Amino acid sequence: MRLTFIRFFAAVGIFSLALAGCNLPGAGASDSAVQATLAALGATQTALAAPAAENPSATEPPAAEIPTATLEPATEEPTATLTPVVHAITPGEPAGASSLSFMTDFNNWGSGEYPVKAGGGDNFDGNNMERPFTQEMKYRPDLDILRADLYADANFFYVVIKLRDVSAENKQLNGTYGVEFDLDKDGRGDFLLLGMPIAGDPSGLPHANAWTIEGVRVYTDANNDVGKATPMRANPPSTPGDGYETLIMDGSARVGDLDGAWQRTASDGVKIELAIKRALLGSPVELMWGALADDGLKAPEKLDYNDAFTLGEAGSSMSGPNFPLKALYAYDNTCRSKWGFVPTGKEPGICEGAVPQPTPTKVCSVSITVRFTDNNSRWVSSWAPYVTACVADTGGGGDCKNPNADGTYTWTGLPAGGYTVTASSTAYSVTPPSYSFKLDCERMKSGVADFVLYIP
To answer: pTM for the complete prediction?
Structure first.
């Protein structure tokens, strides 16, 4: 660096002398001065260069260049590697647990025309949707729920959701599948379990083929406003409410109880199996539950979806003024089934099949017929007013009648039981004096008493 500065000042000196020489009077004097100066500078440079050559380590480094701003290629942030989870408990097999409750869901293949219309079952106002279609009304069999079953063992509840079929495009189940649990049976879901597709699972399936916590989330409704003002019934979108607002478990992000909830694809490829620890739900002794399949909104904070839109905004999968689907599409859910209690039928959203129907009282009625003839097996209608037949049950009830013109009479609609039949006449003798019957609906539903009149 020092040498560089000396050379710089030497050059400046030469330049200055040259200027001075040009301005001095007399060319000869100028030339002499310049020559003397150049000679002195040359000697100086020689003297400075000599030590440097003799002592290479003393050589001045090159002058530092002014740094130039350079745009480095963008590099991605290193992906955080999640610590493998050591589980204290894992789910078992639903097939080995007790089947506690199930529901079947309305489903159809559409009308066969284009655009396809659902054949029925879409109840927007009652939050029982049948919308397994894209907004272009393309049918999604991997979103069309056929049936859902609830099982349980000592540690887990299991929900098995059976879909119509795999996707036509990649032959897999591509949706997000879930279960709502309503612990106090008021129509407001309290917990939401979701199994979402997993990117890059080793199985190559969106939902893996072995129990995993990847892609699994559990939400709760801490402020109890799922369903807004009237749970299960449609409310105006302006009604306050934020659905399932609290995330309590996220398997992929390693948040919450990492033994708490799981998912997998069943071996047949058309069922999704979800498992959740009973303790994560507070170990309930009774609850209502319902299944869903979603590849549209996938927004827990907007549930129930019939509270997020008007019917006109949501559209409809059924023929009518709101067809086709608009904001609410690629979604199917079920009614609510029961576990641990006997529904009254007044629970919001309860499946009709979950409500026990009163066993109809078996109406059993029996009959008794009397027949009159004379001792020659004849009957004359004019004899009827002089003949009476009576039937009496074991409780003391009874009835007496004259025979019809043909000599017969039948009591119908009698309750099962024991009966005695007697006959009498004001003009003739009758034999035998009585008959006894024990009638029921299984062995003997009718009795016949034949009486004989002896005509003088």
So the answer is: 0.66
